[in-house]
Design a protein that fits this description.
577 residues; 2 domains; 7-stranded mixed sheet
């Protein structure tokens, strides 16, 4: 028996039995439209709890369901054996799937507590704990110590009255909200080298349940956590400084020491052939922090993706390039329109954007990914489409193939805890959902346009969807002209966009005359067509991928374990399958 099993649910539990036009909501992330990537917190929590004597494992049910049409998640849950189960509700698109998985856990394991955590679980903690299949919610962005203490109470069958950050139901069914006092000032108590994960894979003879997302073996990107909290106040971000104060009682960011961060990067590079993504702008803790990291990581030969929250200059880029010669950049100004960008909390100029691109490319960036968004405060349809024209200007100036622009909608939900969510009228957002249950029900709608939890004063959801498709079409054609994508791939993407548009109209016609089971049946008859339009809608997802090298020996062994599992050679995962 394990003390704790972490479960990651798909955004929609029965996505294989339903037909939903998810559209472009996952085009710019590694996972599929059902968001089969579990949060990095699973890795840090498992390592911390195992260091403190608990037996912990991970079951990525979402990835298993994506990988195999025959994988039976309910049967897998019924066969598990654990004192407690932990389910992430970090980002709100998991509202339906996470609750459905929790309900199944309680059906088959009525005496095992169900524990929720994550940003969205924190925001809706009092509503969430009132569901009959939820026992505890651990609040905040750092839950390692509270989880350790909670498991000690579960093992000892004692009430968790002293566990910080915990919301729970007492014996009388009353909601108890323990003070949120555990807010660590740094991240040096965490293990971020993924070796605990490797040991667990070997121990359980099971790779398929531990992979971070369904196609991770093909693209084994690793994430290194530099910080919890943020110095910035981007209005649409649930991880902003404002949201950190509201959700995690965090008054200032907690950083990983630069020397430990460099060690994390080296260990990840030894394990995976994929790039290492440094989550968070290295400059948030100051230039001394960044330079200490550069000194400690000097000589690392692997690919590293860095992200910037604001403009950078040539001097900084040269320091970065000297330490990490194979670096790639991600930068998200969100809009070319200064009025829109200021409304999102990013007041820098277009000249500064262009200086950042120029400095990065001159310093040797392997590529520079530039991200724009649709659905922003002050953004009109004309402004959203003019962003593509701005991209043309940029690609004419930076024409060596390393600058790659992307656009996507703010979808499907506003982040709870963000300024846009909390002060929606001020920022021009019209919210269509206010409770967790509201969001769960929205996820049952047939298309991403109808799932959207908001409209704006400048674009209703119909216009927003139309503009998203049109911007995607124009940008795809621009990339084809600039040689950033092949003619064949560009034509495939254009066909998917047009197919998605046609499907949206066809589905809306069905919705106008059918409802309930009749509508579900008619939609399911279209499922093959809908699923074909759900991935790489406004761009080909492979555009995001960094070329990877040969498989390191450790990863090759893990791949062999996973392959043996698929063949059923060793009776693995009896507690999970």
């Amino acid at each position: 028996m394990h003390d704790l099993i972490f479960l990651h649910a798909p955004s929609m539990y029965d996505f294989r039995k339903r037909a939903t036009l998810w559209g472009p909501i996952s085009d710019l992330v590694p996972s599929t439209p059902v968001f089969d990537m579990y949060p990095i917190g699973f890795a840090t929590l498992m390592a911390f709890l195992q260091q403190n004597g608990f037996s912990v494992r991970i079951a990525n049910l979402a990835a298993r369901m994506v990988q195999s049409r025959t994988f039976d998640a309910e049967k897998a849950i019924a066969g598990m054996d654990a004192r407690a189960f932990g389910i992430d509700l970090h980002w709100l698109p998991h509202a339906q799937g996470a609750l459905a998985i929790a309900k199944l856990v309680k059906r088959y394991h009525p005496d095992a507590p169900v524990i929720f955590g994550g940003y969205s679980a924190t925001y809706f903690h009092e509503e969430l704990v009132r569901y009959p299949f939820v026992d505890y919610v651990v609040r905040g962005d750092s839950t390692e110590v509270p989880m350790q203490q909670l498991l000690e109470h579960i093992v000892g069958s004692t009430p968790p009255t002293d566990v910080p950050n915990l919301t729970w139901l007492d014996g009388n069914g009353e909601v108890q909200v323990n003070p949120q006092t555990y807010v660590p000032g740094d991240l040096d108590h965490l293990s971020l080298d993924y070796h605990a994960m490797v040991r667990s894979v070997v121990r359980d003879r099971d790779l398929s349940n531990y992979v971070p997302f369904s196609h991770w073996l093909e693209y084994p990107i690793m994430a290194s956590l530099t910080v919890k909290g943020c110095t910035q106040n981007c209005t649409i971000c649930g991880g902003s400084a404002f949201a950190g104060r509201l959700l995690s009682n965090r008054r200032r960011p907690a950083f990983r020491s630069p020397e430990r961060l460099a060690g994390d990067v080296r260990r990840m590079g030894a394990l995976s052939r994929g790039p290492v993504f440094l989550l968070g702008d290295l400059r948030q803790a100051g230039m001394d922090y960044a330079r200490r990291f550069f000194r400690a990581v000097q000589g690392f030969a692997g690919a590293v993706i860095v992200e910037f929250f604001g403009p950078v200059d040539r001097a900084f880029m040269e320091e970065l390039a000297a330490a990490l010669p194979h670096f790639l950049v991600e930068f998200s100004p969100e809009s070319h329109d200064l009025t829109v960008r200021r409304a999102t909390g990013k007041p820098y100029t277009n000249a500064e954007i262009e200086e950042t691109i120029a400095a990065s490319l001159a310093a040797g960036a392997r590529r520079f990914d530039l991200f724009f968004m649709i659905g922003l405060s002050e953004q009109t349809p004309e402004s959203a489409l003019e962003t593509v024209s701005y991209c043309r200007t940029l690609l004419e100036r930076f024409d060596d193939g390393r600058l790659i622009p992307f656009t996507s909608p703010l979808a499907p939900f506003l982040d709870p805890g963000s300024l846009a969510y909390e002060r929606s009228e001020r920022y021009g957002y019209l919210r269509r959902a206010r409770t967790l249950e509201d969001h769960r029900r929205l996820l049952l709608q047939p298309t991403w346009k109808h799932i959207l939890s908001y409209e704006t004063r400048w674009m209703d959801r119909h216009v927003l969807a139309d503009v998203t498709y049109e911007a995607g079409l124009r940008l795809n054609r621009l990339k084809r002209e600039a040689g950033l994508t092949s003619v064949a791939k560009a034509l495939e993407t254009e066909a998917r966009i047009e197919q998605a548009r046609a499907l949206m109209s066809e589905i809306e016609a069905l919705m106008a005359r059918l409802e309930g089971p009749a509508l579900d049946e008619a939609l399911f008859a279209m499922k093959a067509r809908i699923d074909a339009a759900n991935t790489s809608t406004v761009c080909d997802k492979s555009e995001l991928d960094v070329p990877v090298g040969p498989i390191p020996f450790k990863l090759l062994n893990l791949a062999r374990i996973g392959f043996s599992a698929l063949l059923g050679r060793n009776g693995i995962s009896r507690s999970v399958e």
